[in-house]
């Protein structure tokens, strides 16, 4: 590695006075990419900051992240975008690619000025946290993203009075707790619509945080028809069911919610057969006092940057659902292709973004040791295997002690 770039790859490299890393027994992969992160800054720094969020990414082995636009103010204008990118330049310790909103203020009423935003550094469009209910706006957004070769990331949630007051998945747990449940159809109706719009416009749509068996099948069939659709799944949606709500309360409340065993199995199958292209975290930190409001009043979302890789190794690789290569592909090569960024590779001449993994390290999740401000995780006290030992960003080496585990 010279000047932050990969200069050579060989079994025997002789460079006088070079610093070396002993990676014996470890696995070297391209720097991990998380294409779905909420950094909260500006406006919600009590939840997370660019500094703490990117340090959390670093500790989790991620060298690049895509930050969502639902900050305060929403990143919907060149002025706000420039301010955020300046903060990133000053504070971030990993590569941050910035998404801008699809609609002004994320209100769903007017398309942003896509041309100006892309020229000034927007890497994707997303109203994540909400769906774009207006189909014509969504259609125009897809066409604009196609023009600039950037992805449109869709939060698929049908919003109308039929689903008002939803909290957790509609099922036995919601009935037991006497809480209005979110049916699978709320997601699947929007997945179906967005696939149709992508097909009609010959544009690419990326479906965020897929959580239901029906959504997986809709995406699978669309791919067979040649529709330009990609999708992601989160560790919580391939690991936990809605029964976790009974034990972890608001720390198991997210949107889309944890679903049934059948849905979890379908998400895993979608990862196995390639229907789901990417593993992303939907890292959504909140202050402890906000999550302490209880299941009904607490905000949606959990943190995920520091547990993601370990959950992938423990729940997917070690259980035989994915090979290590397939898992890493969904966290490096595939997101890089979807985002159209020159990352996710160990090629000569490219940025030296590298993650070095200890596959055998056993640890227990302790949120008090997170780099993130957020402690909101349903994986507290969970025993996992595998950790990033060293994360390298543009040639700069970072180590977090593995002894805390």
Summary of the model, kept short:
The protein is α/β, with parallel strands linked by helices. The chain contains 14 helices and 14 strands.
Question: Could you walk me through the main structural features you see in this protein, from its secondary elements to its overall organization?
Answer:
There is one protein chain. The chain has helices at 50-59, 78-91, 114-119, 135-148, 172-177, 184-201, 213-224, 235-239, 244-248, 261-273, 288-291, 308-317, 324-329, 333-339, and strands at 27-30, 32-37, 62-67, 95-100, 122-125, 153-154, 168-169, 181-182, 205-207, 229-233, 278-279, 354-364, 383-393, 396-399. With 405 residues, it is α/β, with parallel strands linked by helices. The protein has one domain: Metal-dependent hydrolases (TIM Barrel). The chain has a 4-stranded antiparallel beta sheet, with helices on one face. A 4-stranded parallel beta sheet has the order 2-3-4-5, with helices on both faces. The radius of gyration is 20 Å and the shape is globular. The two termini are 30 Å apart.
| First-residue to last-residue Cα separation | 30 Å
CATH superfamily: Metal-dependent hydrolases
- Class by alpha and beta content: alpha/beta
Give the averaged pLDDT, no decimals: 97
Could you give the topology of this structure?
Blueprint: E1 27-30, E2 32-37, H1 50-59, E3 62-67, H2 78-91, E4 95-100, H3 114-119, E5 122-125, H4 135-148, E6 153-154, E7 168-169, H5 172-177, E8 181-182, H6 184-201, E9 205-207, H7 213-224, E10 229-233, H8 235-239, H9 244-248, H10 261-273, E11 278-279, H11 288-291, H12 308-317, H13 324-329, H14 333-339, E12 354-364, E13 383-393, E14 396-399
Parallel strand pairs: 2-3, 3-4, 4-5, 6-9, 7-8, 9-10, 10-11
Antiparallel strand pairs: 1-12, 12-13, 13-14
């Amino acid at each position: 590695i010279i000047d932050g770039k990969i200069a050579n790859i060989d079994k025997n490299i002789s460079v006088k006075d070079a610093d070396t890393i002993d990676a014996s027994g470890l696995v070297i992969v391209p720097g991990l990419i998380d294409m779905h992160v909420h950094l909260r800054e500006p406006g919600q720094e009590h939840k997370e900051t660019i500094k703490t969020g990117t340090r959390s990414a670093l500790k989790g082995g991620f060298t690049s992240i895509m930050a969502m636009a639902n900050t305060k103010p929403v990143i919907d204008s060149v002025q706000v975008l420039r301010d955020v990118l300046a903060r990133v330049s000053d504070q971030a310790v990993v590569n941050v690619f910035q998404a801008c909103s699809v609609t002004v203020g994320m209100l769903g009423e007017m398309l942003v000025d896509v041309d100006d935003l892309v020229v000034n550094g927007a890497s994707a469009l997303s109203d994540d946290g909400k769906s774009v209910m207006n189909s014509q706006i969504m259609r125009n957004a897809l066409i604009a993203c196609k023009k600039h070769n950037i992805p449109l990331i869709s939060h698929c949630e049908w919003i109308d009075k039929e689903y008002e007051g939803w909290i957790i998945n509609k099922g036995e747990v919601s009935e037991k707790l006497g809480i209005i449940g979110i049916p699978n159809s709320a997601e699947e109706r929007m997945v179906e619509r967005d696939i149709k719009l992508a097909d009609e416009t010959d544009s690419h749509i990326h479906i965020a945080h897929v959580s239901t068996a029906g959504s997986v099948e809709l995406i699978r069939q669309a791919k067979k028809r040649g529709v330009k659709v990609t999708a992601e799944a989160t560790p919580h949606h391939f690991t936990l069911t809605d029964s976790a709500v009974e034990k972890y309360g608001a720390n198991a409340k997210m949107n889309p919610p944890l679903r049934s065993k059948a849905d979890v199995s379908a998400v895993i199958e979608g990862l196995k057969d390639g229907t789901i292209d990417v593993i992303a975290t939907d890292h959504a930190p909140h202050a402890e006092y906000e999550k302490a409001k209880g299941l009904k009043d607490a905000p949606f979302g959990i943190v995920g940057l520091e547990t993601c890789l370990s959950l992938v190794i423990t729940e997917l690789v070690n259980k035989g659902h994915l090979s290590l290569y397939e898992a890493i592909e969904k966290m490096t090569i595939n997101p890089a292709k979807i985002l159209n960024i020159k990352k996710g590779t160990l090629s000569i001449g490219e940025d030296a973004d590298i993650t070095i993994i200890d596959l055998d390290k056993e640890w227990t999740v302790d949120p008090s040791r997170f780099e993130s401000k957020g402690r909101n995780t349903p994986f507290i006290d969970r025993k996992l295997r595998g950790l990033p030992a060293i994360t390298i960003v543009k040639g700069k080496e970072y180590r977090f002690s593995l002894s805390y585990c």
